[in-house]
Amino acid sequence: MENINFNNDNSYFKPTAEELAKVQQSRVPLNTTRCTEKWVNILNSWRNHQNVGYTYTLESLSSNEQIEKEMCEFLYGVRTKKGDKYSRASLKNAVASISRHLKNSILYWNYNLLDKNSFPKLYATLDGTLKEMKRLGIGAAKLHEGLLRRVFLWICLLGCPRGGEHYKLLIDQFEDTEKGFIFKKFQQKNDQGGNQHTFEILFPSDIADKVEPNADIRKYISMRHPNCTTKEFYLGISNASGQCYLNRALGEKWIRGMFREICLVCDIDISGRNISNHSGRDTAIQSIFDAGNEEIEAMAISGHNSSADEVLEDKELPKSNTINKNEASKDKEQI
């Protein structure tokens, strides 16, 4: 057998620690990274404030008991730059984000701050704070904000758009009929087949007082200003009295985190899960298969022209990217 001299072979190399860290970090969605950085900055600003006076970082602590104590203080004491309390969804997001930060910063620290068994006082503080805020009506979503979230969720589950499609949805893509709304969907360049064309998806009829996607979408459209000239479907939320939505498109930042925000508002634990707007599409496709339907049914909604796509071929999506029907069956008043 011929001896191979690997010393002169450039096929092998030893990656640097920085290269490994970069590829490991690449699996984390950009939105998750941004959210973590945001809340770590807010945490540190609170800790350094003269009324708080912590001169060290949270990750420098070795005692979970002390970490829990200071996190309880942070949750109840943190305020926005205007001096208001953060929304209930934001506070949940804060705990999840800081928990991720501690996992990445403290060697062998493999805990979840949202785990009530490991951090019972923190869980009680968060739960008590959220209930107090709900009772006082603090940080609650406006009714038209909750309606916007419901409409977004219906479109995710019934129209199966890709994550990026939400930014470009137009009001003209929705036609109201006696049977239900028709969603005129533009096929994406990277869908199977490659050609861009429109195909139509008929949303199912409403079930009164139980499942009412068409009623929600119809109500949302009716609340657009009579002189609204914005062609985009999602509109910015107005703070003015007597006006629900602005005559301009909803900001990309709002849309980008919508599905994740819905999960948090509905008390769905998404810590350690890669949840994004595309998760709505993944969840819809998986639900079609879970209901016992064939590939052709999924293809009719998703826009795939072939079953060669791995999602359709395997009929199984990563659970970390989807929301199951038990998690999704929340009271619609929560969103």
UniProtKB/TrEMBL annotation:
Keywords assigned by UniProt, alphabetized: DNA recombination
Cross-referenced SUPFAM superfamilies: DNA breaking-rejoining enzymes (SSF56349)
Alphabetical list of InterPro entries matching this protein: DNA_brk_join_enz (IPR011010), Integrase-like_cat_sf (IPR013762), MAVS (IPR052787)
GO BP: any one term: DNA integration
GO molecular function: DNA binding
KW Membrane (keyword) present: no
Origin: domain of life: Eukaryota
Full protein name: Zinc finger mym-type protein 2-like: PROVISIONAL
Organism: Rhizophagus irregularis
